[in-house]
Amino acid sequence: MALMITDECINCDVCEPECPNDAISMGVEIYEIDPNKCTECVGHFDEPQCVQVCPVECIPLNPEYVETPEQLLEKYTHLQAAKTV
């Protein structure tokens, strides 16, 4: 699954630079995660880095984007390939 940021976000700015896929950006009011870029850090780290640094624990799994670890790894592979083109 991709992750999401809930409205409990305090805009502390610590999650955005931790994302290896550049999936996190500032939205209208709070940070948002692009589910098409979020791999839960599969391919990069053992655990999602944004979740690790979030001081208010407002980054749960996004139930609208159910993905298996294999699908997340495939998404990671496609994202990496797109960076080299």
What does the overall shape look like?
Answer: globular
Low-confidence stretches: none
Radius of gyration over alpha carbons? 12 Å
Helix/strand order, N-terminal first:
EEHH
Number of helical stretches of at least 4 residues: 2
Share of helical residues = 10-25%
Q: How many separate structural domains?
A: 1
- CATH topology descriptor: Alpha-Beta Plaits
Structural class: alpha+beta
- The CATH class designation is Alpha Beta
- Beta-strand content bin: 5-15%
The largest β sheet comes out as: 2 strands, antiparallel
How would you sum up this structure, described in words?
By secondary structure, the protein is an alpha+beta fold. The protein has one domain (16-83): Alpha-Beta Plaits (2-Layer Sandwich), CATH 3.30.70. It is built from 2 helices and 2 strands, in the order ββαα. It has helices at 49-53, 69-84; strands at residues 24-26, 31-33. The protein has a two-stranded antiparallel ribbon. Strand 1 and strand 2 form a beta hairpin. The longest helix is centred in the C-terminal third of the chain and has 16 residues, at 69-84. It starts with 23 loop residues before the first strand and ends with a helix. This is Ferredoxin. Keywords: 4Fe-4S, Electron transport, Iron, Iron-sulfur, Metal-binding, Repeat, Transport. Pfam families: Fer4_7. GO terms for molecular function: 4 iron, 4 sulfur cluster binding; metal ion binding.
